[in-house]
């Protein structure tokens, strides 16, 4: 009762279907799933009408389903507007439809005809009378923006308006407000008014009209408005944050008039970044040749080691001796590899210092070789633990006592890192000690004092300082040249002062002895625990599964196929059990909101839950489908009254403890979402519950802390900083870091409940498509494992195995692997190029994009970073790439929608994302990056963005959709704004 739905009819008086119209019958006559009495046909007729059952038990008619549209989040009944138009005496016919004057900016258009006077001429009616009548009855969001007078409306044979034949409106856009026009008074107001008038194609825009409520603009249109302002006022320092916080021309003009140079961020860059350097062909190809030789050298060294170790391990007599051999080998490999990396750093680099290194030069090659060894060695397994601090000290870093460093990416230039006592650098943070700008690598120092806190997901740029007892909140960025004074708390991008406290009380003391014992336990576990036991299992399976016949035949291949099937199935279920049942058992050993000391029993348990409770493979397999919600429940999430959309969760999301995660009804979560359940200091940690409310939409790369102050019906934009103090935010949008409120439409209950029922058939079709995608994904992994085992057993069966054979086989398999993953990613989209889309998640064209995403998460994402070969991979995957690209870790979501110019630099974790999924609508558009552009670490560029030549985007910046970045400019912040 009281909820709208589709009116359906059933019973003895209802027909069995349309005569000789099978498709139409199947469309509207559905099976009687309610088992209605005396319904002999067993069918229910769907009328296509909306209605509800009121308190009296009567059915209230609410219009047609197919005459509803959604604009700026509001669901609008077109017939309701048409009925008001027809109530005007002069109007004979009326029809309302939608029109996009600009891509992504949907507006309402009113078409009407007029009655004739006695002399046969049409009556007179001004658009002012039309709009005045509509405003008296309807809310602003239902007022059409365009009005088109026609001699007659195009009609179909069924005597209904042929909406497809309605013409494009020829008139100018009308305002949806009845406010009195206020003319601009100052030069700034005039400039802003003219820019907005040109954008909206209106003669006059009142300087008092609200951009969103009165003029009905969208965020995409406002991004274009910002670009237009920068064209008119080249020195204007304006961003989307400024538009939302100053939502009319009067306020925005006042803000721009009072901008001063002192209000801008003052940076103290030690090195000039303006001059763009063009590497020579000799440097480029010579560096690539040296890098290729280095890869080949590592391969030769590995094969030589293999020839020595495998016979020795295989010669073990019995399981005990095999275990001892494997443990000895692992310990030797660990210390040799780590020692080699440290020694190489000191031999090739010496002590890191602030300098400029030309990319593709010999100096750069030395830098790259040391980086490759330091960031790919066994010590990376101990990030966040005391052993990792010891490793950084051996590399030259100055690390104090009781320091916790949980960086997502290990800091490279260790000699320039100083971290004081009792400081914690929390999970998923990035310490930037080098950056690539204008084809030059710049290095710089980072200094963190005593008792400093760096929040989750934050970025500390080089040449920055945090003094004693200072704090930086989560999802924040301390930009180059900034200093946080002693005892101060900062947050946001760029970081600014706040009163928020991000600390966790130190309730325990951590002794040096505890750290030593914990570290020894970690080493023993690696050398004598699960790793050697797992290797023993592999040795056993290999020996057990070796075919009896040495000749390669069809029977031999069938034997390998059988082994692959058994192995793949066993690995799948072991992984699933380890991901679901083991953490569930461990979770019984820890309590919520109970302070525990670091490096103790409960700490080990919590870390195991964190590690095992998240599976990249299974979230990739089930993500972006209806099956992900069931998987999340198996993992431990509390999902309240799931409203199945088929895309409730994306492909990448993390948590600290899944059993303390709760997500509300009707909420959609995008990729890169992290729920933070561990509150940690340098000596203490505790587990806390984290809850996301109902009817939320969460954008990409959002970190949600347990103290998050958001409730129901919130839009949390991409990279937004979730507030942790103040009142609970509801029915609002949150954008930027620090986040600020933007308009958020009220909950669309029809969309979240009944609309899903209406879309049941589309959801079923989507599920079928997703099942095929998942089957293809599993098949690709299965056949890759099959080929791997086929090559391995072929080598084992070879009687005259030698060094050259192993080398050629390894190189061949490496080339095959690259081709294999490229083939799958391109093949699932039929080797076509993507085009910009604006469709529902129930549109088959979106399902194809989902399939591409699932096959793009492979080793190709991190292959050959920092080398010329990276451009080859990008081109093979469909990205248009210019000359001499430097890529240190770029991620591209829709590759064929991206174009990159010559001599561009992309730093680690930079992102070009050509889409959004807000409100279940997939919107994609091209991203164009000009020549000689530099995108710094963790910067995020959204769809529809054009970056002109010689642009620098600072670390952790968020460039919003639709922006145009002018030549020779520098951008930073979240949302990004022009700085220079």
Globular, elongated, flat, extended or rod-shaped: what is the shape? globular
Range of strand content? 15-25%
Residue share in helix: 25-40%
The count of strands amounts to 58
Determine and state the CATH class of the largest domain: Mainly Beta
Coarse structural class: alpha/beta
The overall pLDDT, averaged over residues, is: 88
Poorly predicted sequence stretches spanning 5 or more consecutive residues: 260-273, 746-757
Separate helix tally = 23
How far is the N terminus from the C terminus? Answer: 59 Å
Total separate domains: 6
Largest sheet: 6 strands, mixed
Q: Find the CATH topology of the largest domain.
A: UDP N-Acetylglucosamine Acyltransferase, domain 1
Question: Which superfamily, in CATH terms, is the homologous superfamily of the largest domain?
Answer: Hexapeptide repeat proteins
CATH architecture of the largest domain: 3 Solenoid
Rg, rounded, reads 31 Å
Strand order of the largest sheet: 12-14-19-22-25-26
Question: What this model shows, in words?
Answer:
By secondary structure, this protein is of the alpha/beta class. It folds into 6 domains: 5-57, no CATH class; 64-165, 2-Layer Sandwich (GMP Synthetase, Chain A, domain 3); 187-218 and 235-263, Non-ribosomal Peptide Synthetase Peptidyl Carrier Protein, Chain A, CATH 1.10.1200.10; 281-498, Hexapeptide repeat proteins (UDP N-Acetylglucosamine Acyltransferase, domain 1); 547-758, UDP N-Acetylglucosamine Acyltransferase, domain 1 (3 Solenoid); 788-978, 3 Solenoid (UDP N-Acetylglucosamine Acyltransferase, domain 1), CATH 2.160.10. The chain is built from 23 helices and 58 strands. The strands form 15 sheets. Strands 12-14-19-22-25-26 form a 6-stranded mixed β-sheet. A hairpin with a 3-residue loop joins β33 and β34 (684-687). α4 (187-200) packs across α5 (219-232), α20 (760-797) packs antiparallel against α21 and α21 (803-827) packs antiparallel against α22 (844-855). The longest helix is centred in the last third of the chain and has 38 residues, at 760-797. The chain is globular and about 110 Å long.
């Amino acid at each position: 009762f009281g909820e709208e739905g589709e009116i359906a009819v059933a019973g003895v008086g209802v027909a069995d279907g349309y005569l000789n119209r099978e498709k139409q019958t199947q469309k509207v006559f559905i099976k009687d799933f309610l088992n209605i009495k005396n319904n002999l046909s067993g069918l229910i007729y769907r009328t296509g009408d909306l209605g509800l059952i009121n308190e009296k038990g009567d059915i209230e008619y609410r219009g047609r389903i197919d005459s509803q549209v959604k604009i700026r989040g509001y669901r609008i009944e077109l017939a309701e507007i048409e009925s008001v138009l027809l109530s005007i005496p002069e109007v004979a016919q009326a029809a309302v439809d939608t029109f996009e004057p600009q891509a992504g900016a949907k507006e309402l258009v009113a078409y009407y005809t007029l009655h004739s006077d006695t002399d046969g001429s049409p009556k007179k009616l001004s658009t002012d009378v039309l709009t005045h009548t509509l405003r008296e009855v309807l809310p602003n969001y239902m007022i059409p923006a365009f009005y088109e007078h026609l001699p007659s409306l195009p009609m179909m044979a069924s005597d209904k308006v042929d909406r497809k034949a309605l013409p494009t409106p020829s008139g100018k856009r009308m305002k949806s407000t009845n406010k009195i026009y206020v003319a601009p008074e100052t030069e700034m107001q005039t400039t802003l008014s003219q820019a907005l008038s040109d954008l909206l194609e209106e003669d006059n825009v009142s300087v008092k009209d609200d951009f969103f409520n009165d003029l009905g603009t969208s965020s995409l249109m406002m991004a274009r408005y910002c670009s237009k302002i920068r064209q008119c006022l080249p020195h204007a320092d304006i961003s989307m944050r400024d538009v939302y916080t100053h939502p009319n021309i009067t306020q925005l003009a006042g803000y721009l008039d009072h901008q001063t140079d002192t209000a801008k961020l003052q940076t103290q860059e030690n090195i000039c970044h303006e001059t763009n350097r063009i590497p020579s062909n000799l440097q480029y190809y010579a560096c690539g040749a040296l890098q290729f030789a280095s890869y080949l050298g590592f391969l030769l060294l590995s094969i030589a080691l293999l020839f020595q170790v495998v016979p020795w391990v295989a010669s073990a007599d019995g399981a005990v001796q095999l275990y001892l051999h494997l443990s000895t080998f692992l310990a030797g490999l660990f210390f040799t590899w780590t020692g080699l990396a440290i020694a190489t750093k000191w031999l090739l680099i010496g002590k890191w210092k602030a300098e400029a290194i030309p990319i593709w030069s010999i100096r750069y090659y030395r830098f790259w070789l040391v980086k490759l060894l330091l960031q790919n060695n066994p010590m990376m397994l101990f990030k966040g633990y005391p052993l990792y601090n010891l490793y950084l000290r051996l590399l030259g870093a100055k690390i104090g006592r009781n320091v916790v460093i949980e960086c997502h990416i290990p800091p490279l230039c260790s000699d320039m890192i100083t971290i004081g006592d009792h400081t914690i650098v929390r999970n998923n943070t990035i310490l930037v000690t080098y950056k690539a700008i204008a084809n030059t690598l710049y290095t710089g120092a980072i200094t963190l004092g005593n008792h400093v806190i760096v929040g989750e997901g934050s970025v500390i740029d080089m040449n920055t300082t945090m003094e004693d007892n200072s704090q930086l909140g989560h999802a924040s960025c301390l930009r180059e040249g900034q200093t946080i004074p002693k005892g101060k708390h900062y947050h946001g991008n760029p970081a600014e002062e706040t009163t928020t406290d991000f600390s966790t009380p130190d309730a325990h003391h951590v002794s040096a002895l505890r750290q030593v014992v914990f570290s020894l336990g970690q080493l023993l576990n690696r050398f004598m625990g699960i790793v050697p036991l797992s290797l023993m299992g592999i040795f056993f399976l290999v020996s057990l599964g070796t075919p009896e016949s040495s000749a390669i035949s069809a029977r031999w291949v069938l034997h390998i196929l059988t082994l692959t099937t058994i192995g793949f199935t066993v690995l799948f279920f072991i992984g699933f059990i380890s991901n679901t049942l083991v953490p569930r058992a461990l979770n019984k050993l820890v309590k919520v909101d109970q302070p525990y000391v670091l490096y103790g029993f409960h700490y080990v348990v919590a870390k195991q839950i964190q590690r095992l409770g998240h599976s990249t493979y299974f979230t990739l397999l089930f993500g972006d489908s209806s099956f992900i919600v069931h998987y999340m429940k198996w993992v431990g999430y509390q999902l309240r009254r799931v409203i199945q959309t088929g895309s409730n969760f994306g492909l990448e999301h993390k948590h600290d403890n899944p059993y303390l995660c709760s997500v509300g009804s009707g909420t959609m979560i995008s990729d890169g979402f992290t729920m933070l359940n561990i509150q940690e200091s340098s000596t203490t940690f505790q587990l806390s519950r984290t809850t996301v409310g109902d009817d939320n939409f969460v954008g990409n790369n959002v970190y949600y802390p347990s103290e998050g102050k958001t409730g129901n019906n919130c839009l949390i934009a991409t990279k937004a900083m979730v507030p942790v103090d103040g009142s609970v935010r509801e029915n609002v949008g949150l954008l930027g870091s620090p986040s600020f409120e933007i308009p958020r439409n009220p909950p669309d209950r029809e969309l979240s409940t009944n609309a899903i029922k209406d879309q049941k058939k589309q959801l079923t079709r989507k599920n079928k498509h997703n099942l095929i995608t998942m089957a293809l994904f599993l098949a690709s992994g299965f056949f890759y494992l099959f080929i791997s085992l086929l090559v391995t057993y072929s080598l084992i069966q070879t009687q005259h195995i030698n060094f050259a054979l192993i080398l050629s086989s390894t190189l061949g398999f490496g080339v095959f692997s690259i081709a294999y993953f490229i083939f799958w990613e391109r093949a699932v989209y039929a080797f076509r190029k993507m085009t910009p889309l604006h469709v529902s998640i129930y549109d088959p064209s979106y399902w194809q994009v989902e399939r591409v995403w699932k096959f793009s998460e492979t080793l190709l994402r991190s292959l050959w970073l920092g080398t010329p070969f990276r451009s080859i991979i990008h081109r093979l995957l469909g990205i248009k790439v210019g000359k001499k690209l430097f890529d240190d870790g770029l991620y591209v979501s829709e590759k064929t929608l991206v174009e990159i110019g010559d001599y561009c630099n992309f730093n680690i974790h930079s992102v070009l994302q050509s889409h959004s999924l807000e409100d279940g609508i997939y919107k994609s558009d091209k991203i164009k990056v000009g020549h000689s552009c530099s995108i710094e670490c963790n910067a995020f560029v959204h769809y529809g963005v054009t970056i002109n030549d010689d642009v620098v985007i600072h670390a952790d910046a968020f460039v919003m959709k639709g922006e145009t970045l002018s030549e020779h400019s520098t951008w930073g912040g979240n949302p990004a704004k022009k700085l220079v």
